[in-house]
Write a structure and sequence with these properties.
This protein has 112 residues and is mainly alpha-helical. It folds into two domains: 50 residues, no CATH class; 32 residues. The chain is 58% helix and 0% strand. The chain is built from three helices and no strands. Helix 1 runs antiparallel to helix 2. It is elongated, with a radius of gyration of 33 Å.
Length: 112
């Protein structure tokens, strides 16, 4: 059951999850990783583990955003394909439709 966030105890700086985060961050810094993207995984782990304490699940939005973008791209491609098919059908109908031009006794360009 999800605890009420406003009534839940906040974790303190000496909490084991916070300490674990700083250890991971120090380990990364020892490898020369100090930029934001480099420590992103450690911070994500901290957030995910903290969410579990409160009965919640952290959703990785970046992956979800990519899935939405991929789905939108597929829909756009399907719509473009459908539009292309419809144009081809319309072109075929025009080619197969009987001509409505009046028949003339003399062919065009012929002089009589």
């Amino acid at each position: 059951m999800i605890k009420d966030v406003f009534e839940a105890e906040l974790i303190q700086p000496d909490h084991k999850l916070i300490k674990q985060y700083y250890k991971e961050k120090e380990k990364l810094a020892g490898q020369g990783v100090i930029h934001e993207l480099g420590v992103r995984t450690a911070f994500f782990n901290l957030l995910a583990d903290t969410a579990k304490l409160y009965g919640m699940i952290l959703i990785h939005v970046e992956g979800a955003r990519k899935q939405v973008e991929d789905s939108e791209r597929q829909i756009q491609n399907a719509n473009a394909h459908q539009l292309g098919v419809q144009r081809e059908i319309d072109d075929l109908k025009r080619m197969l439709a009987p001509s409505k031009a009046p028949l003339s006794a003399t062919p065009e360009g012929a002089t009589g």
